[in-house]
Every structure is written in C-alpha cells, then in structure tokens.
Write a structure and sequence with these properties.
Structural class of chain B: mainly beta
Structural class of chain A: mainly beta
Largest sheet of chain A: 22 strands, antiparallel, barrel
Order of helices and strands of chain B: HEEEEEEHEEHEEEEEEEEEEEEE
Number of helices of chain B: 3
Distance between the termini of chain A: 58 Å
Strand content of chain B: 35-45%
Distance between the termini of chain B: 63 Å
Strand content of chain A: over 45%
Oligomer: heterodimer
Number of helices of chain A: 5
Largest interface: A-B, 96 and 90 residues
Chain lengths: ~900, ~325
C-alpha cells in the first residue's frame, strides 16, 4: 500500500503581542491529503509549506500557502489541513489563538501490511442518559501511551493498535478518569460505544458502560433519580428508594427511621450536596423532605465510607442535587392521596438557572374522613410541607455557583380522648428545618477541582405530649453552621489527592419536662402503650459544639488491577455547655468547655490519638469481577439531648466505631451485576441509662455501652435495559448491644435478621409502565412479659419482663404494585399512576400489644391495602 | 387537573379501616380472683408514722372476706432504667407479715442515732442519703409527691401470686427550693403556720352510688358491708342499659400546694378523682370515669349493660384521688329475666 505520511511536527511561529507561550499547539487530529493521482502514479513527491491559524479552541482558521508545490499539491494540502484539530496553544496558561507554519510532505512509501483495516479501534463517547456525544474526551491506550481526542461527534479512532489486551483510559475535566479493558483481535476492527455520565467534580458517581467504575467507598449503592422514581411503593418519591436498598432494615410504619447495617437511626447521616440535614423523611416516613425533581442521585454507604465524611457511626446517605435543569421554563404539578407538589424552573440570560418547588400534605384529613379513629390511635398521621429554592449560575467555563434553600415542616396533633383522666392523651409535635447553602465549584485548568460549601441552618423541634396529666415535653432549637471545602488534584497518572476541611457547629437550646425515662431510648424495656413514669422534672440547658475536621485521601492505582483509597480524618470536637449540675436555689450555674479528641477505639496506644484512618481497596480481577475491602474508624459527637444535668449527663463524650467490610461484585452482563458484601461493625462508648438504683447527680446516663453488628448483604441488580430495571436484595444482619460491662449482649432494638426485597419495573410502551415489589423482613425484637402486678394508685396492671429482647414481632411481608400511564401532548406530559400498597391486604404486625393484665398478647397491624392514586403534569 | 381531582376523590375509597386487635375481656369484668385496690390510712404520712393498709380482693362470688394477704414494705428505689412504677427488685423481697387482711407498718424512717440508715424521703424522695451526698434526688410526680411501695400478695387459683402495690405517699420536705418557699411547703398542713389552710391528705369517700334506667329516676344503691346483713340487691332486667353514677363530697377533691421548679413558686393544685368500675357480668361503657383537676364536678357516671342471663351480679367501685387516696364499695345487683 502506498501512503502519504505527514511531517512529524509543527512549530509555533507567531504569538499575540502580550504574554508568553506556555504551551505550544499540538496536533491531535490529522487528516491525510488526497494525493494527486497523476502525480502519485508518476512517482512525483512534493512539499507544501503552509501558514495555519489555530484558534483558542484548537480549530484551524485561515490557511495560506507559503511555499507552493504546484496547484494540485497546494489544494490537496490546504484541504487536508483545514480539517486538522489541535490542542490549543496556551499563553500564560490560558488557551489562545496562534499562527504556525506547517510543512506538508507528499511522499510515496511502499509498505506491505497485514490484512485488515488500518483503523482497528474506534468508537464514540456518549453522555449516558441524554445520549449526547461527548467532545474532547481523551481516550488513551495506557500501555501504548497514545491518545486520541473525541471530536464534536464524540468519535475517536486509533490506527493499527497491536493485537491483544489494552488498558483504555477516558479522561475529561468533567469526568473522573475511568479505565476499561479492550481486546484487539487480529484482522478485526474493534468499534465501541462508551456511555459516560457528566458529573460535578468531587462527587464519586461516574458510571461507565463497559468500564467498571472506580469505587471510592467500600460499599455503596447509587440509584439515579429517574430510576428511583419508578420503584413501586415509593409513590414516585425518589428518596424513598433508600428503604429498598441492601443493608437497610425496614422501619416500622410511622417511623421513617433509617436502620443501616444494624446501626441506630440517629447514627446515620444524611447529606444534601455535602450539607447535613436532620431528616431524610417527613414524620412517619411517608415522604422525603427534599423534592425528588431537584435530586440527581442518591448514594447509600452503609459503612466503611471515606475520610471526606464523619460525625456518624452508622451509614451515610448522600443526596446530590441536579447541577442545572434543562434550558427554558419547565416544571410539574402533581397530586395524590397524600399531598400536592409542584416545581418550576427557568433559565435566565443563559447562565442563571432558577428552580422553585414545594409540597403540602393532606393525608391526615383524608384518613380521618375514611378510616376509623383507631388508626390515629396507633399510627400518627402527620401534616407536612416542604419547599425549596435553588439558583445555579455559570460564572465562567468550569466555574459554577449554586445557592440552595431547603425547608421542611412537620406537624402532628393527636388527641386520644378517654373518660379516665389518666388515659387522656394528647400529642403535639412540630419539627422543622431550614438550610441555606452556597456551593462554589471550580475546575482548574490542570483538571484539579475546588469546591467550597458554606451553609447555615436552623432546626426546631417541639414535642409536647400529655399522658393523663403527666407531661413529656422536649423543645430543641438548633442553629447549625458549616463550611465544607475540598480540593482534588491528580498527583500523577495513577494517583489523586483530595484535601479538605469539614467544619460544622451547632448551638442548641433545649428544654425538657417529664420523666427521666421519657422519651424512651434504645434499650429501654417497655411495652407498647405503657404509661410513662409518673416522676417529673424540668431542665433547660444549652450546648454548643463545633468540629473542624481536616481530612486527606489519596487514591492510587497500583498495577493494572488494584486501586487504593486511603484517608485520614482528624475530628476534634469542642463542646461547651451552660450547666454541669442541676439548677439549685442560691447557686450560680457552672458551665463547662472541653475538647474531645478523636481517640481511636482500638490500636496501639500511640495511635489512639491519631486521626481516624479510612481505607478502601478495589481489586479488579477481571473485566467482570471486582473485589472490594474497606474499613475505618469513626467518631460521633455526643447528642446534646443526652447532656442535660437533670435527665442525662453533661460529661458524655464521643461515641466511636470501627467498620470492616469486604466482598465482591460480578458483572454478569453489561447491565446485570451481582454484588455481595460482608461487614462487621464494632461500637464503643455508647450512651445508656445508668443501671444504678440511685445514680449520682448529673449521671442519669452513663457511657460504658458497647455494640456489634455483623452480617452479609447481597444485591442482584439489573440496570435499565429495554425498559426494564429491578433488583433483588437480601441482608442477613445481627446487631447486639451491651449497655454496661457487667451485662450480657442483647439484641439491638432494631435488629432484623433477614431483610429480603425484590422489585422490578417495566416500560410496556405507549406510555404504560408496570412495577412490583415484594418485601420480607424479620420482626424486630421485643421483651416478653412474663408476669404482672397491680399499681393500686393508678388501677393499672404493670408488666414483669422476661429476658431482654428475647422475642420478636412476627415477620413482615408485603406485595406492592405500581401502574403508570404517561400521555404526551406537545410540550406537556401527563402521568397518571396507581401505587397499590399491601396488595394482598395482609395484616402485617407492627407492634405487640397486651390486654390489661398481660395475659393475652396480640399484634397491631399496619395499614391494609392502600391505593395511592395520583397524577403528575410535566411541562 | 380535572382528572386528578376526580381520581383523588376515588382513591380514598380503596382504604380499609384498620382494626383494633381483640384483646378479650376488659379490665372491668371480674372473671377470677383479683386485687382491685390497696388502701393506706392515712394516705400521706411522714417518715416513721404508722400506716394501716387494707385491700379490696374480689372474685366472681363477690368480695373476698378476710383476704389472706401477705405484706411487705419495699425499701428499694426504682433505677431510672426501669419503666415501671416500682423497682423490679420489690417483687423479690420477703414478706413481712400475713396472711392478714390488714397490715400496719411505719413509713421507713432513718434512725437518728445511726447515720448509715436512710429514711423513705431519701430512698424515694427529694433528699440525698446522708452517706451519699452526690446521689441524684428522686423526682416527684405531677402532684409533687413521693411514694414508698407496699406490697400485698394473695395466692392465686393456680398457685401463682396475685400482687398489688400501694404507693404510699410520703410527706417529705422540699429538697431544693428557696428557704421561704421550703418553709411554706414544709408547714403546708400546719394550721398555725399555713395561711392557705391546706388540709392534710385524706382518703376520698364515696358518698352515693345511684342506678337509673333510661328515662327513670336514679335510685341509690345500698353498699354491701362486710360483717353486716347484705342489703337487697337492685334489680335490673337482662340486657338492660342502666346508668350508674358515683358521687363524692366536695372535700374529697382536696387542694394542695405543688412546688413548681420552673417558676420557683408554690402553686395550688386540686385533686383529680377517678372511679374504676368492676362487675362480674355485663358490660360497662367505660372501665374508668372521672373528673380532671380543673373539673369541679362531684360525680362520675357510667352506663352498664346487664348480661342477658338472669342472676346475681357483683358490682364494685373504687374511687381514687390523684395523691394515692382510695375508697371502695361493693353493691349487689340482681339481673331479672
């Protein structure tokens, strides 16, 4: 074959008057000239000297012939060069237009090559969801050190790639570098399609078809918002999908608690764009507190998460908001049995995007109209609302600013009338939170990124209850302020460094009135409906705390298969309280200030005061098989509610935990994967009630509890393919606590041995979609009643308890279904859905209840078949 | 949106009301031997003062005369980790007296000559034990009261014990209050220094119980008194709904001072009164009726539906005030065919 070969290099000739060329232009797309046939046949060679203008985008502008080789050679050379593409030159590190001279050589080379195409590896890179071509993605064959850059069509090509396996790397400033393996076969052209997801830098959520993603957490499950909304039983609420993920226990109806890998709900943190919010769900768990349409994705890390996050011993739920909406004005209005919500978003002047959304509920009124009063007796039905505002601005290329406001309110008012003054019950709960945060993100020219997120928030919780004339009151008002900064930079081809500071502070004002053992805490032995203790006290206290947590993580790829993500997090907590002893007449309140250092719970003495270590290792044994192991030490500041000198203990400090996990994932097909993870968690310095008959003053709580949780979880997941997606999960978990050193381990109050779930959704076409979900969970433990006695003063029988948490509520299983029909009319899409919960009308036991003298036991059932019918109009 | 609204109206129809689980007979139905009340007299006393206890024990044949109860005074406080009104350890202490229908014992007092002894106001009340000055004082109930448990035990039909606790109110000093407030409180029942004239706590008394057929005039019922000839039973038709009403005197709901830790003041509070209804047959509308502290009413009514089978029915009423005071009475009914 006779080829025309280009010259090897070009030279910058001219530069703008100001500045210094810091980077010459580099030819990244060469187009061969058409050799004039008569000259080729005649064996005539030539050289054409050209002057080429290269824009700051790397495209070729004007081309002039400086030294001609004849009209036919000149025309061919100019035509070819006009199709060249360069990496733009940089002046003072900024892309800039330049003019160069370029010599195009027309030479005749006779070469005998093997059969097969010269381009034997090519493909296209598409944005995963919109299927939009991704331009300027560097596609590098790592073992050869050659790179191609995708053009505007997202295409790339390589010539004559050697036969055999090759490591391919895709990189782009808006993507985390990802790798995959390709095998070039003899005589065959390998054409691939890579689907990549654009990301906000600093968030680990890239997903590549055919390329295994590099995991930053040892265990995490990520669900896209579009997928989550279709899960049956969630009523279109994206964030409710978390309850269906592996490792997550089922919360009792009406609680909405997140029980992750046997951890207490209070120990799991929920972050929205890195800012902690106090509640993922409204009271009762009926809805999430953040509008689903603002959410891009959800990630659940049940444990062993990285050094970027802390202050929690349990799991981590990260909600990532959408960076921007579609151009123009869009929105939706939706309504169902529970609530109505709406969102509107618009683009102003091309670079400013605004979104407003809100929701208001009316389920309490609907239920009170159609159900018996008993439902309200057992299951609190809250009234809730939430509203959000978000503005995102593109300041310049690779620089964005987003301002977000989140607010959520819950109101629960319940009165259980009785002719017995002792049995009259009222409950008035109000809780709300507000968050305002700014997120500044910048991707620097070298690909490193900077994110700064200052935030401020206010939480309010007022719980006023009366059981007869016994009060159970708790008021909290919390100001929360934070600043999260992270800087991420590639140290080398195989190493990335992340540095950051995670500052958070709270100022909490608390007031409590009632019994020392109310509200109940984990580990309390009680039965449903048992009146609170008659003893009452009152306290009003104030606590400030702040943590400044610097952290560092290094992600390094060792060899071609092993990736390590090692991190350290130093999390000292400054605590300040206004009183260390109960108020006494004639005495001056004495406060306290102290610094709690993040002592590691295990390890050699010198390391006990070292920063909390975190480590994740990912070993890609093959294209399909990946092994993961992770672990870390975690610390959690004391709960201010526990720091009352009257009801608690102002001296409680940080609780700590060690997480270990390991497992593997196997990709059965590009969209079907199986993953299994084993885990072990150990908890230290847990707070529990004093076991002393007469505790010391300000020591009603002690901190000598420990715990452990261990188990295995499995996930078989089919990502969206031909309209179908679904997953099957199973978790085998055991979680235990020991409140005091002289006691034996007992089951954790929320322990659920078996958690099984299977769900799927299928788009039938013509706007029809059908989904189903089945769940099975073991019942949570309860302490049996083995006897009783009569309290003559109240005329009530009181229970005598058997072994702590030695029986369980019967198992729960439920079948749910969802049908949706979407109708598109020009710019409007109308969706109607029917979400059927508890399709078989099974009386699922939610709690044990006893008769007056505890001689008979029965169960309180959850809601029967519930049809949530709703409509949604998108525009 | 018209479609949406229409569907919203249809959707609730798919809801099925949840059901309360069936837990069998109510507390008001006497199906076997039970202790319905334990009464201490006086219902409030200082450390060392002797209190006499009796109890109302019943079975399906009526009040158990001379119930063979065993008695014990518990001196063990309830740990904060326990959610019952008395420590589980009080179930395991040895009996002090019995079998006897009554029991007298002083409220536990410290020996003034022995610093190691502790009185009830330190064990169950607001005072710190002398040898444990850093101990957390007990919290009062909403009436400002502290209580010592006194246990009464009867042998049950299957050999298992029937246990009841009277929480005997202890007259303690204020543990932590300004001197002037503490002085007023500690002398609250002393007529010479108590300008408000708070009476000492006494057991309430049932004044009268009436029975009225629908639209009829209430007829007073005659109480069955142990050791005296049984009065003629009131007659009720089988399946008939009647209204029973228990009344008490104005003095039954006493007013007393409560120390409010929030406002650091003594606040007058009035007792609430509750009537527990029991019968060997038939169905009450309510197991307990009563009057709140701010309800000046002097009676509590309850409807009772006579059983469909003719025969004698025993009826008991237990009147309780919110400070541990108790009164009770038995009445005889005859259900006519």
């Amino acid at each position: 074959m006779i080829l025309a070969l280009p010259p090897p290099s070009a030279r910058a000739q001219e530069a703008p008057p100001a500045g210094e060329i810091t980077k010459p232009p580099k030819l990244i797309k060469f187009v061969p000239a058409v050799y004039p046939k008569d000259k080729h046949d005649a064996g005539v060679t030539a050289s054409v000297l050209l002057s080429i203008e290269i824009g700051d985008d790397g495209k070729v502008g004007e081309v002039e012939v400086v030294k001609s080789a004849g009209p036919d050679f000149d025309a061919a050379a100019v035509a070819a060069v006009q199709q060249f593409l360069f990496e733009p030159a940089e002046i003072d590190h900024q892309p800039a237009p330049v003019k160069i001279t370029y010599r195009y050589e027309f030479t005749i080379v006779t070469e005998i090559v093997a059969a097969g195409p010269q381009i034997n590896f090519d493909g296209v890179v598409l944005e995963r969801f919109k299927k939009k071509p991704m331009a300027r993605v560097k596609v590098t064959i790592k073992d050869l050190g050659v790179t191609a850059v995708t053009d505007e069509d997202g295409t790339f090509a390589f010539n004559d790639v050697p036969i055999g396996p090759h490591r391919i790397e895709l990189s782009h400033p808006k993507l985390i570098t990802i790798t995959t393996d390709e095998v070039i076969a003899k005589g065959k052209r390998r054409t691939v399609k890579y689907a990549v997801e654009e990301k906000e830098e600093g968030v680990d959520e890239e997903m590549v078809e055919r390329a295994a993603r590099i995991k930053k957490e040892a265990v995490e499950t990520r669900i896209r918002s579009e997928e989550a909304r279709r899960v049956p039983g969630t009523q279109g609420d994206t964030l409710k999908v978390v309850q269906n993920l592996p490792g997550v226990g089922r919360s009792a109806f009406g609680s909405g608690a997140l029980i992750v890998w046997g951890s207490a709900p209070k120990d799991t943190r929920v972050l929205v764009d890195g800012v902690e919010i106090p509640a993922l769900y409204h009271v009762g768990g009926l809805r999430s507190t953040v509008n689903s349409d603002l959410v891009k994705g959800i990630e659940l890390s049940p444990g062993s998460y990285g050094a970027e996050y802390g202050r929690g011993m349990g799991g981590l739920v990260r909600i990532e908001l959408r960076p921007r909406g579609a151009a123009g004005t869009h929105g939706y209005v939706a309504a169902d049995v529970m609530d109505t919500s709406a969102l509107v978003s618009t683009t102003i002047a091309g670079h400013l995007h605004l979104a407003l959304s809100g929701r208001v509920s009316y389920l309490d009124r609907v239920l009170s109209a159609v159900t018996s009063r008993d439902v309200g007796d057992f299951v609190p039905i809250p009234r809730y609302d939430d509203y959000q505002a978000r503005a995102t601005m593109v300041l310049r290329r690779d620089e964005e600013l987003a301002v977000t406001f989140l607010a959520s309110d819950d109101h629960l008012q319940r009165t259980v009338p009785a002719t017995d003054p002792l049995q009259r019950r009222t409950q008035n709960n109000d809780s709300s939170y507000k968050r305002l945060f700014v997120r500044y993100g910048r991707i620097l020219s070298d690909g490193s990124s900077l994110i700064v997120t200052p935030s401020i928030g206010f939480d309010r919780s007022v719980s006023l209850s009366r059981f007869g004339d016994i009060p159970i009151d708790l008021r909290l008002a919390t100001w929360q302020y934070g600043l999260r900064t992270s800087f991420r930079r590639r140290l080398a081809t195989r190493a990335t460094l992340s540095l950051g500071v995670d500052f958070q502070g709270q100022s909490i004002d608390l007031e409590r009135n009632g019994s020392v053992n109310q509200p109940p805490r984990e580990g309390d032995i009680t039965v449903f409906g048992q009146p609170p203790g008659a003893d009452t006290n009152f306290d009003h206290w104030h606590v400030n705390w702040a943590t400044i947590a610097p952290y560092a993580t290094v992600e390094a790829t060792i060899g071609s298969k092993l990736t390590l993500n090692a991190g350290l997090r130093f999390e000292p907590t400054l605590l300040d309280g206004d009183r260390s002893l109960p108020l006494a007449p004639g005495t001056v309140p004495v406060g306290y200030s102290r610094l709690n250092l993040p002592a590691n719970p295990v390890g050699f003495a010198p390391l006990r005061w070292a920063p909390n270590p975190r480590l994740v290792a990912v070993f890609r044994a093959s294209k399909q098989l990946t092994f993961t192991a992770g672990g870390g030490m975690y610390a959690q500041p004391a709960d201010p509610e526990d720091m009352s000198p009257v009801f608690g203990n102002p001296n409680v400090g940080m609780s700590r935990a060690v997480h270990l996990s390991g497992g593997g994932a196997y990709k059965l097909t590009p969209t079907l994967s199986f993953e299994t993870i084993g885990f072990y968690k150990r908890f230290y310095d847990l707070v529990s009630r004093s076991e002393l008959p007469t505790p010391l003053t300000s020591q009603a709580l002690t901190q000598d509890g420990v715990g452990r949780a261990y188990g295995v979880q499995m996930l078989l997941r089919q990502e969206v393919k031909k309209g179908f997606f679904g997953w099957l999960t199973y978790s085998l978990i055991r979680s235990e606590r020991r409140d005091h050193p002289d006691q034996a381990y007992r089951l954790f109050d929320f322990d659920q041995t078996h958690v099984f779930g299977i769900l799927g959704s299928y788009a039938l076409g013509h706007g029809w979609e059908f989904g189903g979900r089945f769940r099975y969970t073991s019942g949570v433990p309860r302490t049996p009643v083995i006897g009783e006695f009569i309290n003559s003063n109240t005329a009530l029988h009181e229970p005598i308890f058997g072994p702590h948490n030695s029986i369980r509520i019967p198992a729960f299983y439920q079948l749910d279904a969802r049908v949706e029909k979407a109708i598109t009319m020009r710019q409007v899409k109308l969706s109607l859905f029917l979400d059927l919960q508890n399709l078989t009308n099974r009386k699922n036991p939610e709690e044990l209840i006893y008769n007056f003298d505890f001689s008979r036991r029965a169960t309180i059932s959850g809601l029967p078949t519930l049809a949530v019918l709703g409509a949604r109009m998108d525009f | 949106m018209r479609v949406t609204l229409r569907m919203l109206l249809l959707a609730p129809a798919a809801l099925v009301p949840a059901c309360k689980p069936d837990l069998g007979a109510p507390i008001s139905l006497i199906e076997g031997p039970r202790i319905l009340a334990v009464r201490g007299n006086p219902p409030e006393a200082k450390e060392g003062v002797s209190v006499t206890y009796d109890l109302l024990a019943v079975d399906t044949t009526g009040t158990i005369a001379e119930p063979p109860a065993s008695w014990a005074v518990c001196k063990l406080p309830r740990p904060p980790a326990e959610t019952n009104s008395v420590s589980v350890a009080c179930l395991g202490i040895a009996d002090e007296a019995g079998p006897s229908p009554t029991f007298s014992a002083p409220i536990t007092a410290a020996d003034p000559n022995d610093q190691t002894t502790t009185g009830a106001c330190s064990i169950f009340g607001p005072l710190r034990p002398p040898l444990d000055p850093l101990a957390r004082p007990r919290d009062p109930d909403v009436t400002g009261g502290f209580y010592q448990p006194v246990r009464a035990t009867l042998p049950g039909p299957d050999g298992s014990p029937i246990r009841a606790f009277d929480l005997q109110r202890i007259q303690c000093r204020l543990g932590s209050a300004p001197i002037d407030i503490a002085g007023q409180f500690n002398n609250r029942y002393d007529p010479s220094t108590n300008p408000n004239g708070y009476p000492p706590n006494q057991n309430p008394l049932l004044a009268e119980v009436t029975l009225a057929a629908p639209g009829g005039t209430p007829d007073p019922l005659m109480a069955v008194v142990s050791g005296q000839p049984a009065p003629p039973p009131a007659s009720v038709a089988a399946g008939q709904r009647v209204t029973l009403e228990a009344s008490w005197s104005a003095e039954a709901a006493e007013t007393f001072p409560v120390y409010d830790i929030r406002t650091v003041t003594l606040t007058p509070q009035r007792e609430a009164l509750r009537v527990s209804w029991f019968a060997t047959a038939g169905v009450f509308d309510h197991d307990v009726t009563g009057r709140d502290a701010d309800d000046p009413g002097l009676s509590a009514a309850n409807d009772w539906v006579a059983p469909g089978v003719a025969g004698p029915v025993h009826l008991w009423l237990v009147l309780r005030d919110s400070r541990g005071g108790v009164d009770f009475a038995e009445f005889a009914l005859e259900v006519a065919p």
